[in-house]
Amino acid sequence: MNHTMRRLPGFTLIEVLMVVAILAVLASIAAPSMRGFMDAQMVKTPASDLYSTFVLARSEAIKRNAAIDIVPATGFDWADGWSVRTQSGGTVLRTQDAYPRIAITPSTAGTVTYGSNGRLSTSAAIFRVVAPGNTEARMRCVSIDVMGRPSVRVDRDTDQTACN
């Protein structure tokens, strides 16, 4: 009788363990930089949403030739969400959900209103978007000039008190 051994396709246990060990080392190297990325995104996303809300409100005000309000959901805390609505009739154009673990502090309290010409009916405003207690996530400042143009910038230091 001829007993020949056939090799079956697949991986040996040693090969699988080596791959798992290499992946574990790579994951431990990537984890710290991933944490920084996640911290930055935690502030970047609400700032971008706030910016796009102002762009929408401005374009809708011009398109509809009517005043548009951006109103905080709870009346004062922007981190609880906001809505974009027409001033006459109160038709809601967009709503934004709350952002947990984020603080959004406006320079002026209350509603932001765009006139039918796309300019602010209220004074120019700056919104500070910050993750309280997390200095790794740099504060973002969403500004609206009197002409109604919004802009976003990243704070240059980590004091989280003013837009530098």
Give a structural overview.
Helix content is about 30%, strand content about 25%. The protein has one helix spanning about 15-65; strands at about 70, 80-85, 90-95, 105, 110-115, 125-130, 140-145, 150-155. The strands form two sheets. Strands 3-2-1-5 form a four-stranded antiparallel sheet, covered by helices on one side. The chain has a four-stranded antiparallel sheet with strand order 4-6-7-8, with helices on one face. A hairpin with a 5-residue loop joins β2 (about 80-85) and β3. The relative contact order is 0.15. The mean pLDDT is about 85.
Short description:
This protein is α+β, with helices and mostly antiparallel strands. It contains 1 helix and 8 strands; from the N terminus they run H-E-E-E-E-E-E-E-E. It has one domain (13-154): minor pseudopilin epsh domain (minor pseudopilin epsh fold, 3-Layer(bab) Sandwich).
